[in-house]
Amino acid sequence: MSLNAEQTNQLIRSRRAIFPNTYTEEPIPDEVIKEILENANWAPTHKRTEPWRFKVFRGEARRRLGEYLARWYKENTPSDKYLDRKYDKALNNPQRSSCVIAICMQRDPEERVPEWEELASVASAVQNMWLSCTAYGIGCYWSSPRSILEADEFL
Question: Rounded to 5 degrees, what angle do the CA atoms 47, 119, 130 make?
């Protein structure tokens, strides 16, 4: 296989976080979402544990995600730290995107490799997704809300 090194270098170096306040409502075709997720599957993984899991939120599911994040923020933020703008951001950001993909990890049940290696594999999968988004001209942003440790039931 022969790849163009200069194009690969440009792709890697042009990857940037594109924040939700600059997103458009332009839909992302299903085939492109599938391709992005497929590229994630090609990340390196020790002993082929493939610990990454992804949950895709589209359409109405984005609204439910925003409601969950906003409710969690309101219920878990001390009143002296609570800000309406953060509540609004939690509520509205998921709907600014055509698609939200939750990044999850499932440890190898046999724990054949250290947890840090599985975390590194998940991060590599995310990098593959991010580079794919860059190649397709799709903005993306990696963020972990405080509610993440309690989101199992929602996801």
Answer: 105
Could you tell me how many residues make up the chain?
155
Query: What 3-state DSSP class applies to 78?
Result: coil
Structural domains present in the chain: 25-149 (3.40.109.10)
Mean pLDDT by 10 residues, the chain (155 residues): 88 93 90 98 96 96 95 94 96 93 94 97 98 96 79 69
DSSP code string of 36-64: HHHHHTTS--GGG---EEEEEE-THHHHH
Distances (CA, A) of 43 to 54, 71, 115: 14, 34, 16
Q: Do residues 100 and 57 make contact, with C-beta atoms less than 8 angstroms apart?
A: yes
- Residues 40 and 138: their CA atoms lie apart, in Å, by 15
